[in-house]
Amino acid sequence: GAGVSQSPSNKVTEKGKDVELRCDPISGHTALYWYRQSLGQGLEFLIYFQGNSAPDKSGLPSDRFSAERTGGSVSTLTIQRTQQEDSAVYLCASSPDIGSYEQYFGPGTRLTVT
Amino acid sequence: DQQVKQNSPSLSVQEGRISILNCDYTNSMFDYFLWYKKYPAEGPTFLISISSIKDKNEDGRFTVFLNKSAKHLSLHIVPSQPGDSAVYFCAASDPKGTYKYIFGTGTRLKVLA
Fold this sequence. Notes:
Chain A is an all-beta fold. Chain A is built from no helices and eleven strands. Chain A is globular, with a radius of gyration of 13 Å.
């Protein structure tokens, strides 16, 4: 079956521009997670969704970052006024429900802010 | 602060030998631990996990050991195969019930043929 997909796979943007990253989770998975991996770093938790709600947004680095999920499926991560330190690989994962420890990751979106 | 640490950024092992990847954590309240494997240009894939109430979990060539008193877990791969060459991340489940997962920085394993 189809896994988690993310688009675009690569995004180069100029500093100050807004970007929108998309995640399509595995069909039926109610839990969805966003992470980012900066160069030489581990995966940094950003936000998770249970259904359409995001109970914990504390991992978002700043108020320039926002995320939403509609219809319990697709999620978008938006970064406004991008900065060079936002350059990273943004990974999305889904799991059958919030209590499932195993997460299924997408291939990621590599964001480069010039 | 790094709550989950993988102090070895890389490891090279001969094919057929044992690979041991280590992970240390600081929060004794973590209740579940996972290992993920990541190939270049792909997302991490789940490998094996262990609950804090156990000290060992085995799945084929992969075994995870948990030493709670030392706040240390390790992943053993035996025998190692060239296809095991990847970056391995350990992760811990945040105990506050917020369903966050704290990841280490990863160890790059290279299995030499």
